């Protein structure tokens, strides 16, 4: 692959990165597309890419992942472009990372895609649970790499930068296997407590009978933008990978008066580290417990088909593949009419929207309402006037067809969730 031309970086604090990819002839992700995404990840972490190189291999080299000659070429690129970090597009084994660090110049760090994603998560985690989940994933990634990483941790702990936000603020003496295992145990204990609290909150929503909708999709597909547009949630929404990590749940009232919940979740990505999927299990449980899953897809991305497959893979991992799902293509305002029509022909059951302008969101809301109503029982009731609490509950939780007042009470024809059917049965007409 042609090396990127070196360019001057005005900010001396911005790290220069060399990207390394391996071409395995993946039918979904071309080498160029995968490295382009890796460059966006590097930019999100605060680095500037000054050079890229790649090698076509059937399988990784056991010692250095790439061949010995290519490893020497990477070392020369680091010298030529004054690089600070080398980022591999695939996960390196601890021994491969150690061997590569012996080949590149001493000041250069060698990290892989997993470490880079963890680094970005460390930057963007804001809630206590989010920070703990990132710390857990970092320490589990770090544990088998302690021997290989010791030198660069000691040299770069205070310097910071891409790939070095592991256990930020801790001293070198703490970085040994015993302490890391102890740290993992402590973090898991804290996460268990927070998970129990989240479970109580989630169970409360489940028992309330409220229809639950979860937003899932590839990172930067526009999930947070859609949640903000529909509910005015003011969730952080940037054109960056993994801008938001913490799940956010907001109430939304459908046009017929039914109250539902919308939950935004962490974005997915190809080659998502297994450690992250496990660490964010409690957050991802918001998807598993949903009644309906909106798979938000970036229609403007040339890799949207591959992104769909990547999201499906993670949904399989967390056992969420059985949940009713609707494909929602976002960012249609960025497409030409012909390109949009081509996608519509390939995905006839999908819904097409722009979370930025609101185009198509009325159709999306109507579709959600139809799915929510499909599970309801048609019921006619007459509620005594001294049970105004039940009338209020009907207005909050049910879809009202008609309502009138009689001498006996408030007579309502409605669509009611099966969870509430027994509650209103004594008042059936």
Characterise this structure:
This protein is α/β, with parallel strands linked by helices and 429 residues long. The protein contains 15 helices and 13 strands. The protein has helices at 31-44, 68-80, 94-103, 113-124, 128-142, 146-156, 177-207, 223-231, 274-279, 281-288, 304-317, 337-346, 361-374, 388-397, 418-424; strands at 15-23, 47-56, 85-88, 109-112, 211-217, 248-253, 259-264, 292-298, 325-330, 351-352, 377-383, 399-405, 410-416. The strands form three sheets. The chain has a six-stranded mixed β-sheet, with helices on both faces. Strands 2-1-3-4 form a four-stranded parallel β-sheet, with helices on both faces. The protein has a three-stranded antiparallel β-sheet with strand order 11-13-12. Helix 3 crosses helix 6 (146-156), helix 4 (113-124) runs antiparallel to helix 5 and helix 5 (128-142) packs antiparallel against helix 7. The longest helix has 31 residues, at 177-207. The model is unreliable at 148-158 (pLDDT under 50).
